Amino acid sequence: MAKGLTGMRRWLTFEAVLASPLPRSYTNYVGRWLLAAADTTRQLIAFALITLGVLVTRWGAAPAVMRPLIAHHLTVAGLHLLPMTALIAAALGWAVVGQTVALLTRVGAQDYVGTVMVLAVVRELGPLATALVVLMRAGVPTVIQLGMARANGEVEALEALGIDPVHLLVVPRVIGMTVAVVALSAYLILGAVAAGFLFAFLQDVPLTPGEYGRQIAAALTWPDFLLLGLKSASFGMVIALASCFQGLARPLELREVARVTTTAVVAAVLGCVALDAAFILVYLVL
Q1: 56 part of a folded domain
Q2: Does the residue 4 lie in any domain?
Q3: Is 108 left (phi over 0), alpha (psi -120 to 50) or beta?
Q4: DSSP secondary structure code for residue 25 in this structure
Q5: What is the model's pTM?
Q6: 212/103 Cα distance (integer angstroms)
Q7: 129 near 88, Cβ under 8 Å?
Q8: For residues 1 and 13, what is the distance between their CA atoms, to the nearest angstrom?
Q9: Which residues of 184-202 are buried (b: 16+ CB within 10 A; e: fewer)?
Q10: 115 and which of 27, 120, 188, 219 could share a cystine (Cβ 3.0–4.6 Å)?
Q11: In the chain, where does DSSP find H-type helix?
Q12: Under a CB-based contact definition with an 8 Å cutoff, are residues 73 and 172 in contact?
């Protein structure tokens, strides 16, 4: 009897140990996160290739349906953001020039105000700030809309009718957001440059519009225009693909929509930051 109770106690203790959660260390947590991030990146690349294949093979198909959809998403992600982008451009121009004037005036180097505007706004802050605005305004609603459609069975209904969900739901959003980020980046940069000169004028900086323009023109090169377009387009595609992937590419329930929305925002931000770092290396090489 005593031996049986002892064996029972050992069995209960062993079962309790197996049922208890394993201890997690910081390295274990980081390793799991990196593996999950790598798997998500692999799936996102596959989704991007599928979208590219549909875009190329079905280019020009159903123009009566696709053109209004592209125009709608371009309006939502672009035209509706013009006032907000103008406000951000003014704040960005005032902040950059304000800090620049305060620093350069002390050393008598006001001739580099335009150069700093090119380095800070044209190459870095302009496209990145625009991408974040489009992500919040158009990317998040995209995840919610597609996630709700997936959870309610609307995507399966489209497939049952013989309609390609990628062609109907993803391609117009990718085109609209990409074009919107490129156009809004140029709009924000022009607004920031104008706001920067206005701030310098209000601070009685001895800088004429012609001199300010010559400084900016001297700092700009043809690769700047090319890389600005490539960077803005890359940001727009990353935002659109991350949003559509999280909302559409996997089965969802209604209670999971909020979680995938957060995941899409994090993935898009990390993707934009990684691309920005890659473009910095390109600038250094050029």
Answers
A1: no
A2: no
A3: left
A4: -
A5: 0.84
A6: 17
A7: yes
A8: 18
A9: bbbbbbebbbebbbebbee
A10: 219
A11: 2-19, 26-57, 63-77, 82-107, 113-117, 126-134, 140-151, 154-160, 165, 171-202, 209-219, 222-248, 257-285
A12: yes
Scan for tokens 């980046």, then name that residue.
185
Q: Give the pLDDT of residue 5.
A: 44
Vertex 151, ends 150 and 154: CA angle to 5°?
50
Tokens of 161: 């009718």
Tokens of 135: 């992500």
Given a contact cutoff of 8 angstroms between Cβ atoms, the answer to whether 204 and 225 are in contact is no
| Selection from 270, 269, 263 nearest residue 247 by Cα | 263
Q: How far apart are the first and last CA of the chain?
A: 83
DSSP 8-class letter at 21: P
Question: How crowded is the C-beta side of 277, counted as CA atoms within 13 Å?
Answer: 5
Note whether residue 121 is domain-resident. yes
> How far, CA to CA in Å, does 43 sit from each of 50, 145, 178, 228?
11, 21, 21, 27
In this predicted model, what pLDDT tens digit does every residue of 155-173 receive, in sequence order?
A: 889 888 888 999 999 999 9
Amino acid type, 175: I
Residue ranges in the chain whose pLDDT is less than 70: 1-26, 102, 105-110, 251
pLDDT, tens digit (0-9, with 9 covering 90-100), for 124-160: 899 999 999 999 999 999 999 998 988 888 888 988 8
Tokens 């559409």 -> residue = 248
| DSSP label at residue 111 | G
CA–CA dist 89, 120 (Å, integer): 13
- Cβ-contact 131, 272 below 8 angstroms: yes
Gap between the Cα atoms of 150 and 25, Å rounded: 36
Which residues span the domain enclosing 229? 64-285
Q: Which of 261, 264, 274 is nearest to 47 (CA)?
A: 264
For residue 193, give both structure tokens: 């440059």
Domain assignment of residue 187, yes or no = yes
pLDDT of residue 12: 46
